[in-house]
């Protein structure tokens, strides 16, 4: 049977493929965006999991928008405006898919930074979106390019990860956040704010969500995979009720609702008196891992490479001399280090700057240092 046309031109996920190769215990994987399993708050969730057996109602079908007690809690926890609503999804990745299917027709234009999150590009590709890119600078998107894009291309939406961007780790400045919101309102472009790493800030001052400056023109994705555990598969999409209603309709046809027992477990975790302390421990661990990686990179990589510091998240972006980055990644993998080459983060990979994305959250300090030394030796001799 022939597969759908929408799928025929969508490449398989390079990261999923390399993660399969990197599952070898002899490989140090800096490729994925995996949280450290030691951060999973098993003990904090244990009382809720054990109590689920005494609450049989959570094993029944539920409402599509989500487990009612969790939705009520999230309204206060996320400080949602009165006019806004939420829908719980099976990970924020499903939220991306639902928004794309609810709002994008084949050929509709979607603006995004370049480079951008691979998973978003896959989703937009499946619905036939025309992806328009805007260069990223140290403060966020190039604002002159962005306004020109809005003026001439008239995209339906602008998708971005303002807090600790995947893949570059860039965090937008306050000025950029305000200006992007202003432009979205001025040109009537919906702002799609993906915020999976927002809670993983380990230095600097927290900044407002971009959507807080354009609440009636935005949809926000939040993930609990990084601060609870990926296996829960719980994310939430928020925005004004008129934006959320079509998403709920699509989700009803997709899976009826996300797992109610897992939503109940998340609610118990978020309400636990030690959850804030848990989050502090996660951030402290990741800050330590990041510092180890960054220090090793500064000490060992050739001067022809460059890496910029980050204030949170899970990734650093290393600019390298022009080369075949896929071949470089293969050589590194053969020497026991998995990385992700830059071209996979662009809708059009041709002519993009050579770089590698490195993850620091799921390797020991010793592994991080060893990986950097191997990388430095390989890049020194690679041509």
UniProtKB/TrEMBL annotation:
Q: Which Pfam families match?
A: Aminotran_1_2
One biological process term from GO is: alpha-amino acid metabolic process
For the keyword DNA-binding, the answer is yes
The alphabetical list of record keywords is:
Aminotransferase, DNA-binding, Pyridoxal phosphate, Transferase
Q: Where is the Aminotransferase class I/classII large domain?
A: 52-373
Presence of the UniProt keyword Transferase in the record: yes
**Identification of the protein by name:** DNA-binding transcriptional regulator, MocR family, contains an aminotransferase domain
Single GO term (MF)? DNA binding
Q: Which organism is it from?
A: Vibrio hangzhouensis
Q: Which InterPro entries match?
A: Aminotransferase_I/II_large (IPR004839), Class-I_PLP-dep_aminotransf (IPR050859), PyrdxlP-dep_Trfase (IPR015424), PyrdxlP-dep_Trfase_major (IPR015421), PyrdxlP-dep_Trfase_small (IPR015422)
């Amino acid at each position: 049977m022939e597969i759908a046309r929408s799928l025929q031109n969508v490449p398989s996920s390079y990261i999923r493929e390399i993660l399969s190769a990197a599952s070898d215990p002899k490989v140090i994987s800096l490729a994925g965006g995996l949280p450290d399993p030691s951060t999973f708050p098993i003990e904090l969730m244990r009382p809720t999991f054990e109590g689920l057996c005494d609450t049989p109602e959570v094993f029944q079908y539920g409402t599509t928008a989500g487990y009612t007690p969790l939705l009520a809690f999230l309204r206060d926890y996320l400080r949602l405006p009165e006019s806004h609503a939420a829908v719980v999804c099976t990970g924020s990745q499903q939220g991306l898919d639902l928004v794309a299917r609810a709002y994008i027709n084949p050929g509709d234009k979607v603006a995004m930074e370049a480079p951008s999150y691979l998973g978003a590009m896959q989703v937009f590709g499946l619905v036939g979106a025309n992806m328009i890119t805007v260069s990223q600078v140290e403060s966020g998107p190039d604002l002159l390019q962005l306004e020109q894009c809005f003026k001439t291309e008239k995209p339906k939406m602008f998708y971005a990860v303002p807090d600790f961007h995947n893949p570059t780790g860039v965090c937008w400045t306050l000025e950029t956040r305000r200006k992007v919101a202003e432009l979205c309102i001025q040109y009537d472009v919906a702002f799609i704010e993906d915020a999976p790493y927002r809670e993983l800030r380990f230095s600097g001052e927290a900044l407002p969500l971009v959507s807080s400056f354009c609440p009636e023109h935005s949809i926000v994705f939040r993930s609990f995979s990084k601060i609870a555990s990926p296996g829960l598969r719980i994310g939430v999409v928020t925005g004004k009720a008129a934006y959320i209603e079509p998403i709920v309709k699509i989700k009803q046809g997709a899976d009826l609702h996300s797992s109610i027992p897992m939503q109940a477990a998340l609610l118990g975790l978020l309400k636990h008196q030690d959850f804030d302390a848990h989050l502090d421990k996660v951030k402290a661990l990741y800050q330590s891992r990041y510092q180890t990686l960054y220090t090793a990179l500064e000490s060992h990589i050739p001067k022809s490479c460059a890496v910029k510091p980050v204030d949170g998240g899970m990734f650093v972006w290393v600019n390298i001399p022009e080369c075949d980055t896929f071949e470089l990644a293969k050589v590194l993998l053969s020497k026991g280090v998995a990385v992700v080459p830059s071209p996979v983060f662009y809708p059009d990979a041709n002519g993009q700057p050579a770089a590698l994305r490195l993850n620091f959250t799921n390797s020991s300090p010793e592994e991080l240092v060893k990986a950097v030394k191997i990388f430095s030796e390989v890049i020194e001799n690679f041509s």
